[in-house]
Design a protein that fits this description.
The protein has five helices and nine strands. The protein is an alpha/beta fold. The radius of gyration is 17 Å and the shape is globular. The structure holds NADP nicotinamide-adenine-dinucleotide phosphate (NAP).
Amino acid sequence: MKSILICIETLCGRISPAGFGSKEDRRHLERAREQTDASLLGAGSLRAGDPEFRTFEGKLPVNRLRAIVTRSGNIPATKSIFRTGPRPLIFTKFSIRDMLNERFGERAEVIGVPETDSGMLCLKTILDNLEQRGVESCLIEGGGLLNYEAFKQGVVTELLLTIAPKIIGKQTETCLVSGPTALGTPFIHLELLSCRMNARSGELFLHYKILDRR
Ligand SMILES: NC(=O)c1ccc[n+]([C@@H]2O[C@H](COP(=O)([O-])OP(=O)(O)OC[C@H]3O[C@@H](n4cnc5c(N)ncnc54)[C@H](OP(=O)(O)O)[C@@H]3O)[C@@H](O)[C@H]2O)c1
């Protein structure tokens, strides 16, 4: 299955604080959602914002899946995703699955997933689960830790990256991908498939294919 990581970053590689993309970038994200069957989001991004994964003109396609990954189970039940659109999926570790199931009831489907050696959830299992539900392409929508794990676990096939003409320089803001060790040896190599510039917003829209970890 195709799993496409999508993100907007500053020129200094930061992806937060949220909301620095233009209308063009918003449309770019909506189009990517329209062309994929599911979105996957880290619980940190859900806690930081209120994403619903809408497409053009605020639509929420009934057959498009929306999934959250959490290890802690710290998922605010008050978020809009639990009130609007199709029932979201929550992937979590087995030990807290029943507790979350009880908490969310009909508002979400909770699925237990095995952990990797480093105690993170196995993203391949999550993508396989989505595939069994008919998903052929999944959009990984961040944030930084989910991005890092997705590259580390080797499940990203493509990257859609918007570079905004902004610099923040604050080291506590989240990076596109950031974790304790290099993801390749030391790099992961990518091939540029396309590059589009938007003159009005000054943003660059890059599309990469993930190659190998030489
Ligand atoms: N610019 C952009 O395009 C963009 C897009 C998305 C988000 N963001 C920004 O990114 C920031 C959030 O990033 P973040 O790195 O703090 O958080 P994140 O990646 O959104 O979420 C991290 C959390 O997700 C869960 N998680 C992710 N992968 C997991 C795995 N393999 N196994 C188990 N749990 C996993 C864990 O949840 P628990 O903590 O519940 O265990 C983890 O702490 C926000 O400021 C948001 O606005 C920017």
